[in-house]
Amino acid sequence: MTINERVKMARKALNLTQIEFGDKVGISQGHLTSIESGKRTVTDKSVIAICATFSINEEWLRTGTGEMFIASDSTIVSQLSSEYGLDAFEKVLIEGFLKMKPEERAVIKTYVRNLIDTLTTDETAYKEFRAEYDREHALPFAARGGDTSGLAEAAERFNSTFPAAENKDGM
């Protein structure tokens, strides 16, 4: 497959007409028709414009190697959202964290670590947090007719999330 054919393939994948595609990258419909039909070569300027405008992988466009599109943070977060059933707030929270500078993320991580340390070292706070966690997860157990076969797994998941909490509740 030629670069010209990949330009056409990308346009079709984006579900754009030649006019729409051309307008976005600054080339006329006639010029794009000539590119897609192989009558004109694809210039570096056009490659750069196409890749920047549509998040097309430049290596793929030039050689056919790799994926057509570059996965952006929002694309990755959307995939995670679908996979883990994230709500809008959780999605924005993750996107915001990813967009932070490393030093800003470090501040957040330090804050969360300190919060967890406080939670797991304060016996009263831990018991309240654990009771709330157990209440939130009691419904799935009740839905299984009181079957508690997954309770140990849930406790293990909780304890693996909060390692300092292990052995505080005898599990």
**Mean of the pLDDT scores?**
84
- Please mark out the parts with pLDDT under 50 across 5 or more consecutive residues, or reply none: none
Strand content: under 5%
Structural class: mainly alpha
For the secondary structure, the number of strands is 0
Number of helices: 11
Helix fraction by DSSP (H/I, runs of at least 4): 55-70%
Largest sheet: none
Shape: elongated
Distance between the termini: 60 Å
Indicate the radius of gyration in whole angstroms.
Answer: 26 Å
What features would you describe in this structure?
With 171 residues, the protein is an all-alpha fold. 70% of the residues lie in helices and 0% in strands. The radius of gyration is 26 Å and the shape is elongated. The N and C termini lie far apart (60 Å).
Task: Looking at this protein, list some descriptive labels.
about 170 residues; mainly alpha; 434 Repressor (Amino-terminal Domain); about 70% helix; elongated
Q: How would the blueprint of this fold be written?
A:
Layout (H helix, E strand, L loop, with lengths): L2 H11 L4 H8 L3 H8 L7 H11 L3 H6 L9 H12 L3 H12 L2 H20 L1 H14 L1 H6 L7 H11 L10
Helix pairs in contact: 2-3, 6-7, 8-9
